[in-house]
Amino acid sequence: MYQGKTILGFIPARAGSKGVPGKNIRPLAGKPLIVHTIETAKASGIFDFLLVSTDGEEIARIAREAGAEVPFLRPAELATDTARGVDVLHHAMAWCEEHGHLYDWVVVLQPTSPLRAVEDILGACRLMLERNARAVVSVCEVDHHPWWSNTLPEDLCMENFIRPEILNLNRQELPVFYRVNGAVYLGEWDFIKSRRSFYGPHTYAYIMPRERSVDIDSEIDFILAEALLKDLFER
């Protein structure tokens, strides 16, 4: 519970992963990837129920040992490459309602964001109340400014690659762009249930630093996360 709000913590962890096989339980800095998220969630102290949705028995075992609840295995139709995250979330929310678990808020914590900190979870909750928001989504500043990107024609000519008005500008002169980093999605239960989305006119951004915004989707991401965690441990 946080400031009188009952909260479901939700961790989606599919067993199949084409980019990095076994990604969610692959060791990172000495522990399975998903355990980093479970431990941070538990350390925040705000969750009335911490639920992991998975289709994998091994993921379920590791999650339970780390202190999360795995009351069901995800149906096969919600464990495919094309299954939508919002459908996985709504399946879990429906299970909660059917079993008398009623909450004010739901927080989605993807296991692929192992560097998110307790302060990020609490910061998103604080922003939710300060802005009287219905949802909060974590973002970080982009690594490379999108205005320096474009498509290319077949002949690879770059005549119109960069828009003329920014050709001679320094990076510091360009507007700051942000990206969704996948670390924290927070929303009012009824808002998420009715909209099937975290985005709307009363959704606000919680800004996280880039060093805590690694979203693991490749081998390079694992290497980067390992290096950043090592740096944190040695400080």
Topology:
Elements: E1 7-12, E2 27-28, E3 31-32, H1 33-44, E4 49-53, H2 57-66, H3 85-98, E5 105-108, H4 118-130, E6 135-141, E7 178-188, H5 189-195, E8 203-207, H6 219-234
Parallel strand pairs: 1-4, 1-5, 6-8
Antiparallel strand pairs: 2-3, 5-7, 6-7
Helix pairs in contact: 1-2, 1-4
Explain what you see.
- With 235 residues, the protein is α/β, with parallel strands linked by helices.
- The protein has one domain (7-138, 179-234): Spore Coat Polysaccharide Biosynthesis Protein SpsA, Chain A, CATH 3.90.550.10.
- The protein is 31% helix and 18% strand.
- It has a 6-stranded mixed sheet, with helices on both faces. The chain has a two-stranded antiparallel ribbon with strand order 2-3.
- A hairpin with a 2-residue loop joins strand 2 (27-28) and strand 3.
- The protein is globular and about 60 Å long.
- The two termini are 32 Å apart.
- The model has no long low-confidence stretch (mean pLDDT 95).
Main beta sheet strand tally, sense and closure: 6 strands, mixed
Looking at the structure, what is the overall shape? globular
Chain-averaged pLDDT? 95
Known CATH architecture:
Alpha-Beta Complex
Kindly report the CATH topology.
Spore Coat Polysaccharide Biosynthesis Protein SpsA, Chain A
Q: How are strands sequenced across the largest beta sheet?
A: 4-1-5-7-6-8
| Annotated CATH homologous superfamily | Spore Coat Polysaccharide Biosynthesis Protein SpsA, Chain A
Task: Kindly state the number of beta strands.
Answer: 8
- Estimate the helix proportion, in percent: 25-40%
Span from first to last CA?
32 Å
Low-pLDDT runs of 5+ residues are none
Number of domains: 1
**What is the oligomeric state here?**
single chain
Which H/E pattern describes the elements? Answer: EEEHEHHEHEEHEH
| Class from helix and strand fractions | alpha/beta
CATH structural class: Alpha Beta
